[in-house]
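pasting for the record
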Amino acid sequence: MAEDLHIIQGDKKTQYETLIPQIQGLLSGETNLVANLANIAAALKEQFNWFWVGFYCVIEDELVLGPFQGPVACTRIKKGRGVCGTCWEREATVMVDDVEKFPGHIACSSLSKSEIVVPFFKDGKVVGVLDVDSSELSQFDAIDQIYLEKIVALIC
C-alpha cells in the first residue's frame, strides 16, 4: 500500500491521471470502506485544495456524512434534497456552477460557491456520493466529471 502522495502541478487532466494510480495504490488490499473513503477524500483535497471534499453514504432513507476533509458539514440529507440528495435521486453526477442558484441548495457553509456531486454504486444501486465544494464559482467542468466518476468507480 502506498502511503505517500506525490502532488503534481500542471493541467487538470494531468493531475487526475497522476493521482488515480496513487489512489489505486492507497486502496490496494484494503477492504474497509471507511478507510478507503477517508484516503480518497484526503488525496483529492491534497491534490486540488478544494474547499470541501467528502462522502455521504446511503443509510436507510438518508445520506449520512462519511469521511471528509474541510470544515464541519451537514450530517444527514434526504433523497432529492440539495445537490447531494438530487444526485442520489437522479443516480447521476450533478454539477453546479453557482450553488446560490440551485433550487433547494443546503448551505452547510456560505463559503461554498460551486459544487460537483458524483454517485457511487454497488450492485447497480447508489450507495453513496462524493461531494466536492469549491470557494470559487464555476470551478468544475467535464474533465472533473470524467475523472471523479473514474475515481468513485474504484470504491465498490
